[in-house]
Design brief:
This protein has a domain at about 1-100. It is mainly alpha-helical and about 190 residues long. The protein contains 7 helices and no strands. Helix content is about 80%, strand content about 0%.
């Protein structure tokens, strides 16, 4: 039964989320926490690991959640559930898009979806930031400052056109160093 629940949950996420993996974070978080599959802190850890591992971000998250919830079979069902809607939608769109791409309604729909995607990504940033800056519901000024400095450094490096691999490496290194600062609990 858990396999079907994982498949259907991630199928719904894959079918109704536009904008890629980051836009899925608020929906994945809501579904996972509602079903008590993971704690909020464990999910944030999975988000960090998913960002640092090869492959599509959302697929990595689904795989990790499925594996933690129901083992290898759960990982397979969650991953299949997340990927299948996109596959079906792309098949359908590839057949009709060039015939309808200049339609005013289609153009309006695509413009509206852009705004939704930006909003979902912003919501994901706020939710993840809240769990980083206020871990366990207790505000830690040291953790907030350390996380803020790491974020600012990564944004600065990103604008300097430095390889994302280096930016992720710098962030990981800073996070490891923060483990040795008293008052920061990771």
């Amino acid at each position: 039964m858990i396999f079907l629940e994982l498949f259907l949950t991630f199928f719904k996420i894959g079918a109704f989320t536009f904008g890629g993996g980051y836009a899925m974070i608020p929906i994945i978080r809501n579904e996972v926490l509602e079903r008590n599959w993971l704690s909020d802190s464990a999910l944030v850890d999975f988000l960090a690991v998913s960002e640092g591992t090869p492959g599509p971000f959302s697929v990595n998250v689904a795989t990790y959640v499925g594996e933690r919830t129901a083992g290898i079979g759960g990982a397979a069902m969650a991953t299949l559930g997340l990927a299948l809607p996109s596959f079906i939608i792309i098949l359908i769109i590839s057949k009709v898009f060039f015939r309808i791409k200049d339609n005013i309604i289609v153009k309006g729909l695509l413009n509206g979806l852009k705004s939704v995607v930006v909003g979902l990504i912003a919501a994901a940033v706020v939710e993840v930031a809240a769990s980083v800056f206020v871990p366990g519901g207790e505000f830690s000024i040291i953790a907030a400052i350390a996380s803020g400095v790491i974020c600012a450094l990564c944004v600065f490096l990103s604008f300097k056109k430095i390889s994302p691999i280096i930016v992720v490496g710098v962030a990981a290194g800073c996070g490891i160093l923060c483990c040795f600062i008293p008052g920061i609990e990771i």
